[in-house]
Write a structure and sequence with these properties.
InterPro entries: Nucleotide-bd_a/b_plait_sf, RBD_domain_sf, RRM2_NsCP33-like, RRM_dom, SLIRP/GR-RBP-like. By secondary structure, the protein is α+β, with helices and mostly antiparallel strands. The chain is about 15% helix and about 25% strand.
Amino acid sequence: MNIFVGSLPFSIEEADLRESFEAYGAVDSVKIITDKFTGRSKGFGFVEMPNDSEAQKAIDELNGATVQGRAIVVNKSEPKPEGERRSFNNNRGGDSRGGYGNNRGGNDRGGNRGGY
């Protein structure tokens, strides 16, 4: 079972998180999500446990538990349906042609020279 763990203290290490879950059974993997630029924890992660009943017991007992002064959130991680993936192009509609001016044709940049 894949388990989401949120509201983690930024100082917690993956080994500490693994240890907390191993008290309930075998742990396949632990991953604390970090910012790709700073390397700092984003305050959440995922734990994979092969035995669903052990994983559920860990969820039941650790959800709301205090870790380094913070109440953590622990629940079953549900994969997002493919249609709900986050889009990174931030397309909010409207004109995306860029440039400047209002592009209404002509080439007048404010220096109307009048007929020579």
